[in-house]
Amino acid sequence: MAENVIIIGSGPAGLTAAIYLARANQSPLLFEGFQSGGMPGGQLMTTNVIENFPGFSHGISGAELMEKMKDQAERFGTRFIMEDVEAINTETSPFTVVSMSGQEYETKSLIVATGATAKRLSLDSERDFWGKGISACAVCDGGLPIFRGKELAVMGGGDSACEEAVHLSGFGSKIYLIHRRDELRASKILQKRVMEHPKIEILWNKEVLDFLGDKKLTGLRLKDTKTGEITELAVAGAFEAIGHHPNTAFLQGKLETDDNGYLLTKPGSMMTSVEGIFAAGDVHDPKYRQAVTAAGSGCMAALECERWLCGLYC
Fold first, then answer.
1. pLDDT tens digits, residue range 187-213?
2. Domain CATH code at residue 145
3. Same domain, yes or no, for 235 and 254?
4. Residues 127 and 211 in one domain
5. Alpha carbons 242 and 207: distance in angstroms, whole number
6. Which of 84, 137, 285, 305 is catalytic?
7. What per-residue confidence (pLDDT) applies to 136?
8. Number of structural domains the chain divides into
9. Using 50, 70 and 90 to split pLDDT, how confident is the model at 37?
10. Residue 137 among the catalytic residues
11. What is the pLDDT of residues 217-275, one digit of tens each?
């Protein structure tokens, strides 16, 4: 017998969708993921403290927030499978979802909430200091006490890097924007904003060789891409803004995406290019990428999904 709805993804978007659909007696089946696209729970599982999610006045760890959301979804009847989804078949009715174990599941509707993965520098020292001074989200972490009034670095040269540098200028004493080339890729207005900002200094033609510190980050080792000169820069925080990968490879082109792989939805809707399949969270949002906006889109997708199911099957 086909499921009413399968949700793929266990971040704030997927779990919020599960809460709403479970309370609507749709008995959702949720694939938490296993390895592809990161750990179950999404990007928040690597965030030590979240201070901007409503309802937690003293902050909450990402792992604890996701545990609470999962408990809530489970309490209302969501069923969980800790596997990746390897493929979907959109040409059958109901749709078919194939798990990593080879099991096939039929479902009347589908919510894709697989999120996005931040691009990271492949350095051993990055793994050592991740969450201990290194972050991929200035909006999420920039206001934490460990960064306030300190010198900070942003790595990247696009719009995101410039936006993060400007955002961090409200907290740090000085912001270094580190770029491996001699010109930025960001839009002209953002370039102008960064270049004219009194707190921001651009370090041209520099790449990060190593992250330095003991128990927490204290600096960066940099290499000049033109001269080869090695220098060290003392900073209390480093924010990687080198882009994200939407976790859509498993869809194998069956749903329409933009040029960067983010799922496209119909105007004013969470419906994808295939009727009955909805998108939620960072997998279709390259702009905001916040836990609260992901949760909101999960709610929207769930409400639309429920109404779509009732329209066809009630």
1. 899 999 999 999 999 999 999 999 999
2. 3.50.50.60
3. no
4. yes
5. 12
6. 137
7. 87
8. 2
9. low
10. yes
11. 999 999 999 999 999 999 999 999 988 889 999 999 999 999 999 999 999 999 999 99
Q: Distance between CA atoms of 45 and 48, rounded to whole angstroms?
A: 8
Q: Is 141 a catalytic residue?
A: yes
Q: Name the catalytic one among 84, 124, 140, 259.
A: 140
DSSP lists the bridge partners of residue 109 as: 5
Looking at residue 114, its amino acid is T
Structural contact between residues 105 and 6, judged by C-beta atoms closer than 8 angstroms: yes
Are 260 and 232 in the same domain? no
Indicate if 16 and 156 belong to the same structural domain. Answer: no
Active site residue 140: yes
Asked if the model's pLDDT at residue 46 lies above 80, the reply is no
Phi and psi torsions of 216, nearest 5°? -145, 165
φ and ψ at residue 271, rounded to 5 degrees? -75, 135
Name residue, tokens 């992901």.
Answer: 294
Indicate whether 70 and 113 sit together in one domain: yes
Beta bridge partners, 80, equal 30
pLDDT at residue 205, as a whole number: 97
Residue ranges making up the domain that contains 233: 120-240
Q: Which of 141, 282, 285, 305 is catalytic?
A: 141
